[in-house]
């Protein structure tokens, strides 16, 4: 993977950064949203979040969990998501899972979908004791995008443990992360000096055992970037992150007896964070020492934010796994018990 900056369409960046307003060098603003929905044969559950806004940190969570059981059919559909944002750090987690086990052969289908999205706007000013305001400099800095994504799906006979055709299973996930920066006094038109953009995404969709769509740009990794700026003038930042996933077991027209599952996730632990400024040079290329990169709240972006995160529980899938195993065992016993 090449760790380089990328440019995205001019109008997208201009609208995004200009939306910060004339006070972009002032107070930070963070937004987050999380949604989740689940459906079984008999019930629906959803949690549709609203954008939450804060000046220092913000978080949103959503979950929709359904567990239906009858003498012949058990279904479990689970969707969980969370989104957090604070200075120099975003996390966005989306996880889904569906299972069903049938004794009679009826497979009515079940689905789960979730989404998490975050945004953060902030700015900082680089100064030092010997730096002259308005003169040019170059800063070298690092951002990190890390986490994990994955999918799992199967159709298995509950008695023999062997794979069976079963109804169609659909799984998908998508995540994207974007950081754009503009140095006041340098950046006028995009592209050009005083602008930098780091953008990555990944998506995958599967039907049964076949990949039907997918693509990626950049991805997880460490990105070492540079930005030309002016000492004493604001450097504006816009952070964005989104994660979505879905799991879907179709209705089955033919009788199928077996345990079916579909699980997908787009999960990030320390998803997208600022890892500090490694060096600053003046217009002549001389190293600058003793610099600070302070925002309006006194937060210093010269440091790393790797360990800074809003304390909110990460959505888990433990209940889904445990519930599926319990249902499997219960229905398996029922199926093997001879009729009186």
Automatic annotation (TrEMBL):
UniProt KW keywords: Signal
Cleavable signal peptide: 1-27
Organism per entry: Roseateles chitinivorans
Protein name: PEP-CTERM sorting domain-containing protein
């Amino acid at each position: 993977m090449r760790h380089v900056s990328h440019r995205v369409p001019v109008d997208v960046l201009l609208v995004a950064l200009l939306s910060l307003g004339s006070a972009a060098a002032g107070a930070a603003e963070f937004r987050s949203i999380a949604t989740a929905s689940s459906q079984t044969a008999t019930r629906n559950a959803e949690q549709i979040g609203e954008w939450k806004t804060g000046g220092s940190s913000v978080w949103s969570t959503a979950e929709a969990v359904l567990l239906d059981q009858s003498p012949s059919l058990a279904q479990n559909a689970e969707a969980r998501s969370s989104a957090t944002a604070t200075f120099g750090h975003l996390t966005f987690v989306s996880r889904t899972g569906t299972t069903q086990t049938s004794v009679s052969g009826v497979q009515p289908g079940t689905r789960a979908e979730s989404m998490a999205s975050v945004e953060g706007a902030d700015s900082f000013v680089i100064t030092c004791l010997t730096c002259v305001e308005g003169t040019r400099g170059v800063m070298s800095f690092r951002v990190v995008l890390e986490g994990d994504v994955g999918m799992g799906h199967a159709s298995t006979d509950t008695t023999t443990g062997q794979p069976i055709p079963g109804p169609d299973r659909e799984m998908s996930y998508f995540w994207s992360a974007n950081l754009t920066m503009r140095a006041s006094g340098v950046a006028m038109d995009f592209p050009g000096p005083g602008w930098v953009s780091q953008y990555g995404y990944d998506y995958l969709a599967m039907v049964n055992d076949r990949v039907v769509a997918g693509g990626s740009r950049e991805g997880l990794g460490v990105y070492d970037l540079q930005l030309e700026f002016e000492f004493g003038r604001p450097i504006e930042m816009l952070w964005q992150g989104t994660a979505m996933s879905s799991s879907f077991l179709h209705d089955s027209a033919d009788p199928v007896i077996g345990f079916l599952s579909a699980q997908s996730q787009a999960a990030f632990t320390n998803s997208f964070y600022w890892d500090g400024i490694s060096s600053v040079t003046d217009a002549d290329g001389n190293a600058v020492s003793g610099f600070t990169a302070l925002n309006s709240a006194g937060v210093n972006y010269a440091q790393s934010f790797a360990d800074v995160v809003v304390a909110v529980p990460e959505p888990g899938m433990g209940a889904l796994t445990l519930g599926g195993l319990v249902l499997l065992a219960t229905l398996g016993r029922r199926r093997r018990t001879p009729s009186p």
